[in-house]
Amino acid sequence: MSTNATVRTVLVPAAGLGTRMLPATKAIPKELLTLVDRPIIQYGVEEAVQAGIRRVVLVTNPGNTLTASHFSPAPELEAELLARGKPELLAAVRALTGLAAVTTVHQPEPLGLGHAVLCGRDAVGDAPFAVLLPDDIIDAEPPALRQMLDVFAGCDGPVLLVERVPRDAVDRYGIIAAEPVGDGVFRVTDLVEKPAVADAPSDLAIIGRYVLTPDIFDTLESTERGAGGEIQLTDGLRQLLRIRPIHACALNGTRLDAGNRGGFLKATVHFAAKQPALAADLRDALDSLTQPATGG
Ligand code: UTP
User: Fold this and answer.
1) For a surface tag, which of 26, 162, 266, 269 has the fewest beta carbons within 10 Å of its beta carbon?
2) What structural domains and CATH numbers belong to the chain?
């Protein structure tokens, strides 16, 4: 197998509990929470498609049929929009069906990101693939996955996306030790999941995009539970590093972490400000917060 074969599949793990967003995520999967005008997951799938990847494998918990249905035909809704003369809404709904080829695999229990990736093994097959964590929403041009695929084309192994984070935040991420080998490109020498601040080998955090080679599945089969009692993808990659080089590229763009309350709010403001029809409302709302209170 040539490691730089075309990447046609993106695996989207979406089977976590989403505890940081409870109670919003009690009945609604986190990736379906609405960010301005579309669910979180749509941003990720659109990014993959813009990067040239049209095959999407969702990893969900077995009870979740809602997430995939966002990308399935909705004949009754479409007929109703047609009858009511709403061509723009009809086009927006239909576009979701043609956007990508979406299939679903199940993760029976949320045993960790590494385990979620392993659940996609049969669906991915023996070819390189991307992993996209839907709550890391990335606004970048070219799209983040495209930036990574361009690096992957010249590498003999996986490519991770990294971003420098404040030193006191390293314990929330997988952190790499690395040597720069080019403009924004690093050769990874070690990886550690959620290190203590004092032990972190750098401030380069792995953010929610990976381009992986299929040999990661064998290493994940033997990866033991790590940080938080979960089977960690970072630990699987650490094993893989013994047999294959791993590179990282620095994100050129803006990452918004919609998986926690503050980040979700910032992401909402970021994407609302980009829509001319909403930008004025957003400015009014923010201005009203800074005006001195009057009367009352
Ligand atoms: P997170 O670290 O955000 O975990 O997972 P989480 O469970 O979704 O949320 P919190 O921490 O409880 O608030 C990153 C991505 O990996 C998926 C999640 O659905 C999310 O898209 N994931 C995580 C799985 O698919 N399975 C798992 O076992 C863990």
Assistant:
1) 26
2) 9-276 (3.90.550.10)
